[in-house]
Amino acid sequence: MSLVEKLVELANDEIWIYSIDGALKVNDVEKSLGELDKQYLKRNKENILKLFEELGIQSNSQLGYTSFQQRQMWLMDRLEPGNARYNMSFKCRLQGDLDKPALKRALNSLVDRHKVLRTVYREWEGEVYQSAKWRAELKITEVDLSGYRHEGGEASELRIQKKIQQEDLVP
């Protein structure tokens, strides 16, 4: 059993391993961590800390296996890095004043609530795993298209559509 598999198994048993200031901490609420597992963690402390650092995580609760489809998408990204093929975009027309800070807070709140929106894929010893970030701050880019409106008609709509399509290609 690999190190990651062991850590995922422990997380599934609700035994949480944390990295805090370079030290490993164990949260075993049910007191179900056996002596062999304790010895395993002690023997592999440095490897666990290295794994957490390389994957950018703080706890085994952030680790998980990937599905066949997730591994396929990861492989496609490895073959064509930066391809935005699987991005899903949308557009909407807003009229009136927009409370930009409130919009950003709302979108970040959505990301905080849904682990899948904070999940990234990492490779460790030739295998791909998913890990969920504790927090993920959205980067929102504002593009002012108000100047396009002065052209009027179909020409401005085409320029706006072209700008949106350019943004769709950005991963």
Give a description of the structure.
The protein has 171 residues and is an alpha+beta fold. It is built from seven helices and five strands, in the order αββααβααββαα. A hairpin with a 2-residue loop joins β1 and β2.
Write out key terms for the chains shown:
171 residues; alpha+beta; three-stranded antiparallel sheet; two-stranded antiparallel sheet; 7 helices; elongated
Q: Could you give the count of β-strands?
A: 5
Uncertain residue ranges = none
User: What overall form do the CA principal axes indicate?
Assistant: elongated
Q: Which percent band covers the strand fraction?
A: 5-15%
DSSP helix fraction: 40-55%
Averaged pLDDT: 84
Whole-angstrom Rg: 22 Å
Strand and helix order: HEEHHEHHEEHH
Question: Strand sequence of the main sheet, in spatial order?
Answer: 3-5-4
Largest sheet: 3 strands, antiparallel
Q: How many alpha or pi helices? A: 7
- The SS-based structural class is alpha+beta
Cα-to-Cα separation, first versus last residue = 35 Å
Q: What does this entry show, briefly?
A:
The protein has helices spanning 3-12, 35-43, 45-55, 68-79, 100-113, 146-149, 153-168; strands at 16-20, 23-27, 63-64, 119-124, 127-132.
